[in-house]
Amino acid sequence: MDVMTKPARRTAPASRLVRAELRWIFRRPRTLAVLGLLALIPVIMGIALTVADPTAASSGGPPGNDGGNLLPAAAASVLVLPIAALTMTLQMLLPLAAAMSGADALAGETSTGTLRGWLLAPVGRAKLLLVKALGVATFTLAAAAVIAATGILTALVINGDGTLSTLSGTTLSIPDAVGRVALAVGWVTLQLWAVGAIALAISAFTEHPMVVLASVLGGVIVFTVLGSLDALSWLHPFLLTEVWWSLVDVLRDPVPAADLIDGGLKAACYLAIGLSLAYARLVSKDG
Amino acid sequence: MTAHAEPVVAGPSQQEGPALAARTRGLRKTYGRTVAVDHVDLDVPEGAVLGMLGPNGSGKTTTIRMLLGLVQPTEGEVQLLGHTMPERAGDALPDVGALVEGPGFHPFLSGRENLLRLAAAEPRLTAAGIPPAVDDALERVGLSRAGGRRYRGYSLGMKQRLGLAGALLVPRRLVVLDEPTNGLDPAGTREIRSVIADLHHDGVTVLVSSHLLAEVEATCTHVAVLNEGALVAQGDLTELLESESAGLEVSTTDVTAAVEALRAAHLAARPTPDGVRVELTRAAAPDVIATLVGAGVPVYEARRSRTGLEDLFARLTQDSEEAPTWTS
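Structure tokens for the assembled complex are given below, as produced in the milestone run.
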């Protein structure tokens, strides 16, 4: 039980705040609806694959990447569907989910007047950002994990013999395959943390969650367009979205790590910048 | 609209009066060119129930937000329970309960869940102490039964009460209530009044802002009047009202003798239905009574005549150009 008399605390323990934050996030109907819809995506992809002619589906995905080969390959290997689903959703839907989480965390709480309650308790602003960032991080991890999980389940259903073949033609052991999926989930989550950190920064500047959603989504679209313009190739190393198709590399044997590492470092930079901006704004913000 | 350039008074006033639960000196806040709060020297004596009055847009809420460290002042200093704000918020705020700018809660959670979330951030509560503290607070504002219902379905009055419960999760030294009776029916208003009376009885300092003058007159021991961002009056409510109308109502059966005795002492007096009314411009109340008793006039009752807070407020806030700035 409790320690009898402690010196009067100046602020509540961070672990308690994180628990309260997670309870708030996962009690929210919207959060559950988004996770549910994301979970459906691999299922829909799986159904589409079994119904559609595999050769017709090969036109999907941008040229130059292996997106085009992914969907047909998913019919032949359990390993491919979860990775394909993560790759597809990472282009738009998962960043949208991360933005939603970041928007609710600060802008949403400001607009309902609930952020003030914690500031008055008091919760220091650095600690507040830490708790909010952990909340966004947990939610994005859950979003990526849910897609991977239903992806694996769907793949097992439509691919009864459980082949674990890679795009390179080799076959993986079960632990190795699990490792590949975990790697993909971790890598996607890191990308989403980068998006979430930027969302948090915008979220600290506004009290309208819609502004955050629109900015992040607009940013993703603009980055994608910029990435497709060869004349702007000097800009491409700075675009986070440029690396997002390299997740397919997880399906090769051996894994070509260069692009994945490059993407991870980029995400870490965006993460650091986003959190710094969010912190700078939050400490001077009127509550 | 000119800025006051008076130096900030720091030392002496602190020792003279009673201890102050909150105190501002030279407090000023500007948003661009708009001056929201202008050189406010507010004193909230410990144990007082201070009513903060002012028309809409007079700077009440901004002042409160600066007191609580939510807003950084442009100039001036704020002391809350003896700690400088906003730097020492961690020392002051655990003992302060506040309901600012209306209740803020999540519509998809129940009232109780909302309070649990708020209580998780209260430094004074242990993990095990949170649920009982929440239940106590709900009971205190009469929401025990509605605690399990979603906040979305609450009436305006229930929302307001839940906000009050949030301010009362932990025993406080200072409770700050910004327009607590907004949206409440008369019964709800009475309940808030009784909560404030209980807090006052327990020695808790209460700062309540309101535009309902009758409300303030009924519950407060002190008032502070803001107008256009400036503090135009503050002090003990009774003293403020008395200093406004210097008159003494004396009940007597012998009106003629009373008037004669007073006129002989050069005191202005006129008969009223049950006695005389004496202007206290030249003499204090005890002198008047001594004069009357000395002349053998039977005095049954003597009391200071009071104008209402409404008159005082109207005079202080109507034409701000000429309103005198005074404190008592």
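DSSP finds eleven helices and no strands in chain A. The CA atoms of residues 87 and 138 of chain A lie 20 Å apart. Further analysis is deferred to the final report.
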